[in-house]
Design a protein that fits this description.
The structure is a single chain. Helix 4 crosses helix 5 (about 165-180), helix 6 (about 200-205) packs antiparallel against helix 8 and helix 6 (about 200-205) packs across helix 10 (about 260-270). The protein has helices at about 25-35, 60, 110-115, 140-155, 165-180, 200-205, 210-215, 225-230, 245-250, 260-270, 315, 320-330, 335-340; strands spanning about 70-75, 80-85, 90-95, 120-125, 160-165, 185-190, 285-290, 305. It has a domain at about 65-195 and about 270-340: Alpha/Beta hydrolase fold, catalytic domain (Rossmann fold). It has an eight-stranded mixed sheet, sandwiched between helices. The chain has 13 helices and eight strands.
Length: about 350
Protein backbone atom coordinates (compact mmCIF):
# COMPACT_ATOMS: atom_id res chain seq x y z
CA UNK A 1 0.00 0.00 0.00
CA UNK A 2 1.23 3.44 -0.94
CA UNK A 3 1.80 5.67 2.05
CA UNK A 4 -0.03 9.06 1.91
CA UNK A 5 2.22 12.11 1.89
CA UNK A 6 2.70 13.77 5.24
CA UNK A 7 1.48 10.78 7.23
CA UNK A 8 3.83 8.26 8.72
CA UNK A 9 2.24 4.93 9.45
CA UNK A 10 4.34 2.69 11.62
CA UNK A 11 5.09 -0.71 10.23
CA UNK A 12 3.36 -3.38 12.17
CA UNK A 13 4.65 -6.89 11.98
CA UNK A 14 6.31 -9.70 13.70
CA UNK A 15 10.07 -9.74 13.93
CA UNK A 16 12.03 -12.88 14.26
CA UNK A 17 11.80 -14.25 17.79
CA UNK A 18 9.59 -11.38 18.92
CA UNK A 19 5.86 -11.02 19.62
CA UNK A 20 3.46 -8.77 17.72
CA UNK A 21 4.72 -5.19 17.92
CA UNK A 22 2.50 -2.30 18.95
CA UNK A 23 -1.02 -3.60 18.17
CA UNK A 24 -2.59 -0.29 19.22
CA UNK A 25 -0.99 1.46 16.19
CA UNK A 26 -2.58 -1.02 13.83
CA UNK A 27 -5.98 -0.46 15.42
CA UNK A 28 -5.62 3.33 14.99
CA UNK A 29 -4.78 2.88 11.31
CA UNK A 30 -7.75 0.53 10.82
CA UNK A 31 -10.20 2.98 12.35
CA UNK A 32 -8.81 5.91 10.33
CA UNK A 33 -8.67 4.38 6.83
CA UNK A 34 -11.08 1.43 6.59
CA UNK A 35 -14.48 2.70 5.36
CA UNK A 36 -17.53 1.94 7.44
CA UNK A 37 -21.20 1.98 6.42
CA UNK A 38 -23.05 5.11 7.51
CA UNK A 39 -25.61 4.95 10.33
CA UNK A 40 -28.98 6.05 8.96
CA UNK A 41 -31.70 7.14 11.41
CA UNK A 42 -35.01 6.03 9.95
CA UNK A 43 -38.30 7.77 10.85
CA UNK A 44 -39.64 4.50 12.30
CA UNK A 45 -36.93 4.42 14.94
CA UNK A 46 -38.42 4.70 18.43
CA UNK A 47 -36.28 4.73 21.53
CA UNK A 48 -37.20 1.93 23.94
CA UNK A 49 -38.30 3.35 27.29
CA UNK A 50 -36.74 1.88 30.42
CA UNK A 51 -38.67 -0.99 31.97
CA UNK A 52 -39.67 -0.61 35.59
CA UNK A 53 -39.41 -4.00 37.25
CA UNK A 54 -41.10 -4.85 40.52
CA UNK A 55 -42.01 -7.98 42.37
CA UNK A 56 -45.69 -8.92 42.08
CA UNK A 57 -47.62 -8.34 45.25
CA UNK A 58 -50.07 -10.84 46.73
CA UNK A 59 -52.93 -8.55 45.82
CA UNK A 60 -52.04 -8.70 42.12
CA UNK A 61 -51.40 -12.46 42.10
CA UNK A 62 -54.55 -13.76 43.77
CA UNK A 63 -57.43 -13.68 41.28
CA UNK A 64 -60.02 -12.90 43.94
CA UNK A 65 -58.01 -10.27 45.85
CA UNK A 66 -59.90 -6.94 45.93
CA UNK A 67 -58.02 -3.68 45.60
CA UNK A 68 -59.83 -1.97 48.49
CA UNK A 69 -59.12 -4.56 51.19
CA UNK A 70 -56.46 -4.59 53.87
CA UNK A 71 -55.08 -7.96 54.92
CA UNK A 72 -54.70 -8.60 58.63
CA UNK A 73 -53.79 -11.58 60.81
CA UNK A 74 -55.42 -11.70 64.20
CA UNK A 75 -54.00 -13.95 66.96
CA UNK A 76 -56.99 -15.52 68.69
CA UNK A 77 -55.40 -18.21 70.88
CA UNK A 78 -54.33 -21.47 69.26
CA UNK A 79 -53.63 -19.71 65.97
CA UNK A 80 -54.22 -16.59 63.91
CA UNK A 81 -57.21 -15.70 61.77
CA UNK A 82 -56.68 -14.28 58.30
CA UNK A 83 -59.14 -11.50 57.51
CA UNK A 84 -59.78 -8.86 54.86
CA UNK A 85 -60.87 -5.43 56.08
CA UNK A 86 -62.67 -3.02 53.77
CA UNK A 87 -62.77 0.60 54.89
CA UNK A 88 -62.53 2.20 58.31
CA UNK A 89 -65.42 3.69 60.22
CA UNK A 90 -69.13 3.48 59.57
CA UNK A 91 -71.48 0.59 60.35
CA UNK A 92 -69.57 -2.68 60.47
CA UNK A 93 -70.69 -5.78 58.58
CA UNK A 94 -69.17 -9.16 59.45
CA UNK A 95 -69.28 -11.71 56.61
CA UNK A 96 -68.60 -15.34 57.58
CA UNK A 97 -68.14 -18.08 54.97
CA UNK A 98 -69.48 -21.63 54.99
CA UNK A 99 -67.92 -25.07 55.30
CA UNK A 100 -66.53 -25.71 51.81
CA UNK A 101 -65.77 -22.05 51.10
CA UNK A 102 -63.60 -19.26 52.53
CA UNK A 103 -63.26 -15.47 52.40
CA UNK A 104 -63.34 -15.24 48.55
CA UNK A 105 -67.01 -16.22 48.78
CA UNK A 106 -67.79 -12.55 49.54
CA UNK A 107 -65.63 -11.04 46.78
CA UNK A 108 -68.69 -9.52 45.06
CA UNK A 109 -70.67 -8.44 48.13
CA UNK A 110 -67.98 -6.66 50.17
CA UNK A 111 -67.12 -3.97 47.57
CA UNK A 112 -70.82 -3.10 47.23
CA UNK A 113 -71.15 -2.58 50.97
CA UNK A 114 -67.93 -0.55 51.04
CA UNK A 115 -69.25 1.75 48.32
CA UNK A 116 -72.36 2.34 50.44
CA UNK A 117 -70.36 3.56 53.43
CA UNK A 118 -69.88 0.38 55.47
CA UNK A 119 -66.83 -1.12 57.07
CA UNK A 120 -66.66 -4.81 56.11
CA UNK A 121 -64.75 -7.58 57.89
CA UNK A 122 -64.32 -10.87 56.00
CA UNK A 123 -62.45 -13.49 58.08
CA UNK A 124 -61.41 -17.06 57.40
CA UNK A 125 -62.51 -19.27 60.28
CA UNK A 126 -59.69 -21.04 62.09
CA UNK A 127 -58.61 -24.06 60.06
CA UNK A 128 -60.19 -22.70 56.88
CA UNK A 129 -58.85 -20.61 54.03
CA UNK A 130 -55.61 -18.78 54.83
CA UNK A 131 -56.05 -18.94 58.62
CA UNK A 132 -53.79 -21.11 60.73
CA UNK A 133 -54.44 -24.83 61.09
CA UNK A 134 -53.18 -25.79 64.56
CA UNK A 135 -52.95 -29.51 65.17
CA UNK A 136 -55.94 -30.65 67.16
CA UNK A 137 -57.87 -27.40 66.84
CA UNK A 138 -60.22 -26.92 68.57
CA UNK A 139 -62.49 -26.25 65.59
CA UNK A 140 -65.92 -26.73 67.15
CA UNK A 141 -68.67 -24.14 66.60
CA UNK A 142 -68.38 -22.77 70.13
CA UNK A 143 -64.62 -22.34 69.69
CA UNK A 144 -65.08 -20.59 66.33
CA UNK A 145 -67.50 -18.16 67.97
CA UNK A 146 -64.91 -17.31 70.63
CA UNK A 147 -62.28 -16.72 67.96
CA UNK A 148 -64.56 -14.27 66.13
CA UNK A 149 -65.24 -12.43 69.39
CA UNK A 150 -61.51 -12.07 70.03
CA UNK A 151 -60.88 -10.95 66.46
CA UNK A 152 -63.48 -8.19 66.76
CA UNK A 153 -61.91 -7.10 70.05
CA UNK A 154 -58.49 -6.87 68.37
CA UNK A 155 -59.99 -4.76 65.59
CA UNK A 156 -61.67 -2.51 68.24
CA UNK A 157 -65.12 -3.22 66.84
CA UNK A 158 -67.94 -3.33 69.36
CA UNK A 159 -71.05 -4.12 67.32
CA UNK A 160 -71.65 -5.67 63.91
CA UNK A 161 -74.35 -6.71 61.49
CA UNK A 162 -73.44 -10.37 61.02
CA UNK A 163 -74.03 -12.32 57.81
CA UNK A 164 -73.25 -16.03 57.51
CA UNK A 165 -73.31 -18.79 54.91
CA UNK A 166 -74.40 -22.32 55.99
CA UNK A 167 -71.79 -23.16 58.67
CA UNK A 168 -71.23 -19.44 59.23
CA UNK A 169 -74.86 -19.17 60.31
CA UNK A 170 -74.29 -21.70 63.09
CA UNK A 171 -71.14 -19.90 64.28
CA UNK A 172 -72.89 -16.51 64.30
CA UNK A 173 -75.86 -17.96 66.19
CA UNK A 174 -73.45 -19.14 68.89
CA UNK A 175 -71.69 -15.75 68.91
CA UNK A 176 -75.02 -13.97 69.42
CA UNK A 177 -75.94 -16.38 72.22
CA UNK A 178 -72.76 -15.82 74.23
CA UNK A 179 -72.21 -12.16 73.27
CA UNK A 180 -75.58 -10.59 72.43
CA UNK A 181 -74.07 -7.13 72.86
CA UNK A 182 -71.89 -7.77 69.81
CA UNK A 183 -74.63 -8.35 67.23
CA UNK A 184 -77.14 -5.73 66.06
CA UNK A 185 -78.75 -7.91 63.38
CA UNK A 186 -78.11 -11.18 61.57
CA UNK A 187 -78.75 -12.53 58.10
CA UNK A 188 -78.47 -16.27 57.46
CA UNK A 189 -77.74 -17.31 53.87
CA UNK A 190 -78.83 -20.86 53.02
CA UNK A 191 -79.06 -22.01 56.66
CA UNK A 192 -79.47 -25.69 57.46
CA UNK A 193 -82.74 -26.96 58.95
CA UNK A 194 -82.83 -26.06 62.62
CA UNK A 195 -79.54 -24.16 62.25
CA UNK A 196 -77.76 -27.44 62.94
CA UNK A 197 -74.09 -27.85 61.99
CA UNK A 198 -74.88 -30.14 59.09
CA UNK A 199 -75.78 -29.88 55.44
CA UNK A 200 -74.88 -31.27 52.02
CA UNK A 201 -71.38 -29.84 52.23
CA UNK A 202 -70.54 -31.40 55.61
CA UNK A 203 -72.35 -34.65 54.80
CA UNK A 204 -70.35 -35.08 51.59
CA UNK A 205 -67.11 -34.96 53.56
CA UNK A 206 -68.22 -36.94 56.61
CA UNK A 207 -69.38 -39.74 54.34
CA UNK A 208 -65.83 -40.45 53.25
CA UNK A 209 -64.08 -43.37 54.92
CA UNK A 210 -60.40 -43.62 55.74
CA UNK A 211 -59.43 -45.63 52.62
CA UNK A 212 -61.46 -43.25 50.44
CA UNK A 213 -59.65 -40.23 51.89
CA UNK A 214 -56.30 -41.94 51.32
CA UNK A 215 -57.24 -42.58 47.71
CA UNK A 216 -58.38 -38.95 47.28
CA UNK A 217 -55.12 -37.66 48.72
CA UNK A 218 -53.12 -39.74 46.24
CA UNK A 219 -54.84 -38.20 43.20
CA UNK A 220 -53.11 -35.39 41.29
CA UNK A 221 -55.97 -32.97 42.00
CA UNK A 222 -56.58 -34.31 45.49
CA UNK A 223 -59.52 -32.73 47.32
CA UNK A 224 -60.57 -30.84 44.18
CA UNK A 225 -62.19 -34.06 42.97
CA UNK A 226 -64.22 -34.18 46.19
CA UNK A 227 -65.12 -30.52 46.68
CA UNK A 228 -65.54 -29.63 43.01
CA UNK A 229 -68.89 -31.43 42.52
CA UNK A 230 -70.17 -30.15 45.87
CA UNK A 231 -69.31 -26.54 45.05
CA UNK A 232 -70.71 -26.68 41.52
CA UNK A 233 -73.93 -28.25 42.79
CA UNK A 234 -74.45 -25.20 45.04
CA UNK A 235 -74.81 -22.74 42.12
CA UNK A 236 -77.37 -22.59 39.34
CA UNK A 237 -74.98 -21.25 36.68
CA UNK A 238 -71.61 -22.80 35.92
CA UNK A 239 -69.93 -19.41 35.40
CA UNK A 240 -70.60 -18.57 39.04
CA UNK A 241 -68.19 -21.32 40.10
CA UNK A 242 -65.22 -21.30 37.67
CA UNK A 243 -62.36 -23.74 37.98
CA UNK A 244 -60.13 -21.01 39.44
CA UNK A 245 -62.54 -20.45 42.33
CA UNK A 246 -62.89 -24.20 42.94
CA UNK A 247 -59.12 -24.41 43.12
CA UNK A 248 -59.03 -21.44 45.51
CA UNK A 249 -61.54 -23.03 47.88
CA UNK A 250 -59.71 -26.38 47.70
CA UNK A 251 -56.17 -25.00 48.07
CA UNK A 252 -56.00 -25.24 51.90
CA UNK A 253 -56.62 -28.99 51.73
CA UNK A 254 -53.97 -30.04 49.22
CA UNK A 255 -51.18 -32.42 50.13
CA UNK A 256 -51.08 -35.75 51.88
CA UNK A 257 -52.80 -34.43 55.04
CA UNK A 258 -55.26 -32.06 53.38
CA UNK A 259 -58.15 -34.52 53.08
CA UNK A 260 -57.62 -35.69 56.66
CA UNK A 261 -57.76 -32.09 57.90
CA UNK A 262 -61.00 -31.51 55.98
CA UNK A 263 -62.54 -34.57 57.61
CA UNK A 264 -61.38 -33.38 61.05
CA UNK A 265 -63.10 -30.05 60.42
CA UNK A 266 -66.33 -31.79 59.40
CA UNK A 267 -66.30 -33.89 62.55
CA UNK A 268 -65.39 -30.99 64.83
CA UNK A 269 -68.10 -28.60 63.71
CA UNK A 270 -70.73 -31.34 64.03
CA UNK A 271 -69.80 -32.15 67.65
CA UNK A 272 -72.36 -29.88 69.32
CA UNK A 273 -74.62 -30.84 72.17
CA UNK A 274 -78.37 -30.42 71.79
CA UNK A 275 -78.54 -28.32 74.93
CA UNK A 276 -76.25 -25.70 73.42
CA UNK A 277 -78.96 -24.36 71.12
CA UNK A 278 -79.90 -21.11 72.85
CA UNK A 279 -82.33 -18.42 71.76
CA UNK A 280 -80.62 -15.40 70.26
CA UNK A 281 -83.32 -12.73 70.13
CA UNK A 282 -87.03 -12.23 69.98
CA UNK A 283 -87.10 -11.27 66.31
CA UNK A 284 -84.54 -13.79 65.07
CA UNK A 285 -82.30 -13.49 62.03
CA UNK A 286 -83.41 -12.85 58.48
CA UNK A 287 -83.17 -16.10 56.54
CA UNK A 288 -82.61 -16.05 52.81
CA UNK A 289 -81.65 -18.61 50.19
CA UNK A 290 -82.04 -19.38 46.51
CA UNK A 291 -85.45 -20.21 45.10
CA UNK A 292 -84.27 -23.66 44.00
CA UNK A 293 -82.34 -24.58 47.14
CA UNK A 294 -83.11 -28.29 47.69
CA UNK A 295 -82.56 -27.96 51.44
CA UNK A 296 -85.71 -25.85 51.97
CA UNK A 297 -88.03 -26.80 49.13
CA UNK A 298 -91.52 -27.36 50.52
CA UNK A 299 -90.48 -26.28 54.02
CA UNK A 300 -89.88 -23.13 56.02
CA UNK A 301 -92.21 -20.81 54.15
CA UNK A 302 -90.95 -17.86 56.19
CA UNK A 303 -87.56 -17.99 54.48
CA UNK A 304 -86.95 -15.35 51.82
CA UNK A 305 -86.03 -16.88 48.46
CA UNK A 306 -84.23 -15.15 45.60
CA UNK A 307 -84.68 -16.12 41.98
CA UNK A 308 -81.79 -17.32 39.88
CA UNK A 309 -79.74 -18.92 42.65
CA UNK A 310 -79.29 -22.12 44.63
CA UNK A 311 -77.26 -21.99 47.84
CA UNK A 312 -74.30 -19.67 47.27
CA UNK A 313 -76.14 -16.33 47.11
CA UNK A 314 -72.98 -14.19 47.58
CA UNK A 315 -71.70 -15.44 44.21
CA UNK A 316 -74.97 -15.52 42.27
CA UNK A 317 -77.07 -12.69 43.73
CA UNK A 318 -74.63 -10.20 45.32
CA UNK A 319 -76.65 -7.04 44.64
CA UNK A 320 -79.97 -8.20 46.20
CA UNK A 321 -78.08 -9.68 49.12
CA UNK A 322 -76.20 -6.42 49.69
CA UNK A 323 -79.51 -4.57 49.61
CA UNK A 324 -80.90 -6.85 52.32
CA UNK A 325 -77.81 -6.24 54.43
CA UNK A 326 -78.15 -2.47 54.07
CA UNK A 327 -81.79 -2.66 55.16
CA UNK A 328 -80.68 -4.48 58.33
CA UNK A 329 -78.12 -1.87 59.33
CA UNK A 330 -79.26 0.42 62.10
CA UNK A 331 -78.81 4.03 60.90
CA UNK A 332 -75.81 5.50 62.64
CA UNK A 333 -73.86 8.72 62.37
CA UNK A 334 -70.56 8.45 60.57
CA UNK A 335 -67.58 10.76 60.65
CA UNK A 336 -67.11 13.04 57.67
CA UNK A 337 -63.45 12.04 57.49
CA UNK A 338 -64.18 8.36 56.95
CA UNK A 339 -66.87 9.19 54.39
CA UNK A 340 -64.46 11.43 52.51
CA UNK A 341 -61.77 8.74 52.56
CA UNK A 342 -64.15 6.25 50.96
CA UNK A 343 -65.40 8.74 48.38
CA UNK A 344 -68.96 8.66 49.72
CA UNK A 345 -70.67 12.07 49.55
CA UNK A 346 -71.70 13.44 52.92
Amino acid sequence: MRQPSGLRIPRVGVRRGAALARPSHFLAWYIAFVPRPPVIATPEFQPIPPVTRRLPSTRSVLPYAPQDADYVRLPVGPGALHAMRYGHGGPTVLLVHGFTTSAPLWQKVAPILLARGCQVIVPDLLGFGESDRPVGGPYAVSAQARYLDRALALLRISRVVAVGQDLGCVVLRRLAAVRPDRVDAMIFCSPTPGDAPRGPEIDAVRGQTGPALLEISSRPLGVVDLLGPVLRAAVSQGESMPDSLVARFSAPYTGSQGARHLLDLARAVAEEEEGDQQPISDSGPLRVTGKDDPMVLGANASMLRLDGALRLLPLERPEPLAALIMNSIVPALDSSVSLEERGVPG
